Amino acid sequence: MALGFFRKKKKPFGKLDEELEDLEKSFESPKKEFKLRETEPVVHEFGEFKTRFGEEERMSAPTIAEHPLREAPLRVEEPSMISKDLEIISSKLDAIKAQIESINQRLANLERIAAAEQSTEKRW
User: Is-above-0.70 flag for pTM?
Assistant: First the structure.
C-alpha cells in the first residue's frame, strides 16, 4: 500500500520561494532588549559616578564595543542584488498573470456552455 499522500508538497515556484523568504528575512530588524544590571553605574554631577557597590570612578567616553546603543552598520545592497530581486518579483508576477488568464479562459468556457444550455432549454 502506497502512502504517497504523506509526501511533502513541492513549492510551486521552487527556488524562487526560498529566495523570497531569504529576502523577507533580510528586511526584518532584530529586536534588542537592554536590561539594567546590578553593576550599572549611577551618574552624579561633574562626570563622577558611583557603582551600586559604593566604588567611585571617573566617567570616560564608552568605547565602540561598550556602547549599549550601538547598532550594526547598515548593509548597502549592490545593484546586482537589487536587479536580481526585481527579476524574481517580475517572474512571480508573470506566473500570477498566467494563472489569472487561465482562470479567465476557463470562466469564459463555462459561461459559453451555460448560455448554450439555457438556449436549448428555452426551445423545449
Answer: no
